[in-house]
Amino acid sequence: MRRLLLPWALAAIVFVALPYIVPDYYVGLVTKMLIFALFAMSLDLMIGYVGLASLGHAAFFGLGGYTVGLLGLKAHVSEWIALPAGVLVATLGGVLFAFLALRARGSYFLMITLALAQVVWGIAFGWRTLTGGDDGLPGIKRPTFFISLADQTAFYYFVVLLVGLSAIALTMIVRSPFGLALLGIRESETRMRALGFNVWRHQFVAFVFAAAFAGLAGALFVYQNKFVNPAFLHVVMSAEALIMVILGGVGTLLGPAIGAGLIIFLEDFISSQTQRWLLILGIIYVVTTLFAPRGLIGLYRDFVARRSKP
Amino acid sequence: MTALVIEDVAKNFGGVSALRGVSLSLEAGERLVMLGPNGAGKTTLFHTIAGTIIATSGKISLFGDDITNMPPDARARRGLARTFQITNLFPSLTVLQNILLAICGAREITFQFLRSMESRRDLQARARELLEQWGLAASADQTVRNLSYGEQRQIEVVMALSGEPRLLLLDEPTAGLSPAETLRVVEMVRKLPRNMTILMIEHDMDVAFEVAERVAVMHQGRLIAEGDEAAIRANKQVSDIYLGLE
After folding, report:
1. What tens digit of pLDDT does each residue of B46-98 get?
2. How many separate domains does chain B show?
3. Nearest to B43 by CA among B32, B56, B54, B34
4. Which domain holds residue B172?
5. Chain A contacts of B89, Cβ < 8 Å?
6. For a tag on chain A, would you pick the N or C end, based on fewer CB atoms within 10 A?
């Protein structure tokens, strides 16, 4: 237990101290990193733990985002309702998608999730009167929860709090008997059935959990950007999250979080130099799968294993 | 009490009849070995009992309940456990985690999110006790993938029995093992508690008589003989299949 407490405490100190150390711009960048860390961790619950590779995870990110945006901008609903509603709509989206997609496995599951997410994207793109179409919804305000979070530093702390709590919840899930059952399903569905587990129900619950956390990430990202557009729902968003997971290390929670931080940082840095960010992203993906198929966490573990052997 | 009743079970795959009306019953605590050459229908029958294949016709009951059309996990929750002919474990988990999952499945510890697996001392202790009992304690924290085939076959059996099932189905647990390893697995089966009903599929007649008092022989989708060692060894049709025709 003490072994676990130390890294958490260190992380807490670093994240609390950060705004006093770095300029405002980087506070915004780290906010974005944290939001995508949550998004990538939620996706890894599917890929790394249950073993279901989804290419439609942006649908929940976008559903959370659009719900928060539309409720705030068009319905003038309080953020106390809008933010939970964003998570709720993403969760319900997860319920619906899970019913439709969990009939298939492997690359068929990937294609169904991709197709379902593209439907949501198509609606957001086409329904101009509601969603503003390709232009999206500008002018969304940052929320006020007891104190105004309009200021970047205040909003940053809000994100640290919510992402931190979500990370703790996800950690508890993967360490619980339920989490072990998910790993079992990833390894052998037939064996899990023979042991008396209802495999479909486990996959369903994991899918819905993943959608809920992705929805929270999406809602936070809309508040961060004060803006939402169909890019939130696009397959590029799903693929980017997938690459964050693979780069960091499938089957861990820390890996995807690190992968997300790294990708967001590189995106920010490279986009300021060149327009070819997607090309670079593709190269990162290829290099990772060729040389570090278990991601950065995998490389680190190999390194430790090699050093511990004389 | 009757543990398992199979009534006139048939299974067709398209035009192929794998099972042509098999009837069989096992009393609670009984041990029966199913013998037969390749393609006799042993494994198909096994699948219809475990639920991985649903019978085309006929009826299967487990301790009085009709399970003919039940999914495999529902059967498992009614006290049926099985092993797989082709080793089917969780290769990248540790031996301990494999056993823990078997215990969780049997005790229906399924949707529990709040407490970590590590803090479940009761489950951890039970899993280690089982590994100790079956001589696998030394490999408890090893990843299953890194174990020898022989050890994996033993874990296959330990996993099935760690939920304390009422009916244990063993699908050629000695498949591919060396004579020494076969002996270990046979010893394991013989040491199982007497109140556990066991149905085992086996190729080898000598192994079969080591394990069970009663043997049934299948051939071309039918049950052709049933009885104790002497009756089976004396049966003309059985010796034709095993010695003459094969």
Report:
1. 999 999 999 999 999 999 899 999 999 999 999 999 999 889 999 999 999 99
2. 1
3. B34
4. 2-245
5. 187-188, 191
6. C
pLDDT tens digits for A128-175? 988 888 888 988 889 888 888 889 999 999 999 999 999 999 999 999
Residues of A whose CB is below 8 A from B81? 194-195
Task: Please name the residue that has the structure tokens 């690459």.
Answer: A243
Chain A contact for B227 (CB, 8 A cutoff): no
**Distances from the Cα of A258 to the Cα of A22, A41, A254, A266, angstroms:** 19, 10, 6, 12
Is the whole model's pTM more than 0.95, yes or no? no
Residue B68 belongs to domain with CATH number: 3.40.50.300
Rounded alpha-carbon distances, angstroms, from residue B195 to A34, B164, B168, B192, B226: 56, 10, 11, 9, 22
Residues B2-16 as b/e (b if ≥16 CB within 10 A, e otherwise) read ebbbbbebbbeeeee
**A170 — contact with chain B (CB < 8 Å)?**
no
Mutate to test the interface with A, among B67, B116, B121 (most CBs of A within 10 A): B116
Separation between Cα atoms, residue A56 and residue A90, nearest integer Å: 12
What DSSP designation does B138 have? G
